[in-house]
Design goal:
Blueprint lengths: L5 H55 L2 E8 L5 E6 L4 H7 L22 E5 L9 E3 L2 E4 L3 E2 L5 H4 L7 H13 L16 H7 L3 E2 L2
Parallel strand pairs: 1-3, 3-5, 6-7
Antiparallel strand pairs: 1-2, 4-5
């Protein structure tokens, strides 16, 4: 067998180098593709996480409206975040008066949209009242002792009607809740709306 010349050895070596470079190039290209796929997957995961975070933030930032009345300094409709509790409603309304009976109120209770929170006086008789499809949190209003702002929280009772109720009881105390119908402007229909919300002692 003839000996391989130096020239032939160089040709073989060159071919092997070309083959090696080719395979190295293919391997690097594959790694780049895998890296690109990995980056795409990471981007998709980040997008999904951001979408979930946005949904959670939307839920957290949701607002509710609550009606707070009774012995608070600024009764009325207030706007709160959806994770608020009764104590938050009390603070948002300016706090309570000294005669407020907070022992009868669950300050830790979570609030719902359209909820009514009533803060009673000390020694005032209270109870929870269900009307229609809503649950009114708090107690009945004593029509013999309630202040004007408290009377105005009753359905259909505005400032003028509240004045009439106060004027009537100054002349003649209510002996039963039905007696409120003797106040001009309060008929059977209005009485039916408020009878479960009022008391006389």
């Amino acid at each position: 067998m003839d000996k391989i010349t130096k020239r032939e050895k160089m040709i073989v070596a060159l071919i092997m180098l070309i083959v090696l470079v080719f395979f190295m190039s293919k391997k690097k290209s594959k790694e780049n593709i895998n890296l690109s796929d990995s980056n795409n997957i990471n981007q998709e995961v980040n997008i999904k996480n951001n979408e979930i975070l946005e949904v959670e933030n939307d839920n957290f930032n949701e607002e509710i409206y609550v009606h707070i009345c009774g012995r608070v300094k600024n009764p009325g409709l207030i706007k709160l975040s959806s994770d608020s509790r009764v104590i938050d409603a009390v603070e948002a309304s300016g706090g309570v008066f000294e005669d407020a009976d907070l022992d009868k109120i669950n300050l830790a209770k979570k609030l719902k949209d359209e909820e009514r929170v009533y803060i009673p006086k000390i020694e005032e008789q209270t109870s929870s009242v269900d009307i229609g499809d809503g649950n009114l949190e708090g107690g009945q209003i004593n029509i013999n002792t309630a202040e004007k702002s408290e009377l105005e929280t009753l359905p259909g009772i505005g400032p003028k009607m509240a004045d009439k109720i106060i004027e009537h009881r100054q002349n003649e105390e209510f002996s039963s809740i039905e007696d409120i119908k003797s106040v001009s402007g309060i008929g059977d229909k209005k009485f039916e709306e408020i009878k479960k919300l009022i008391c006389i002692n």
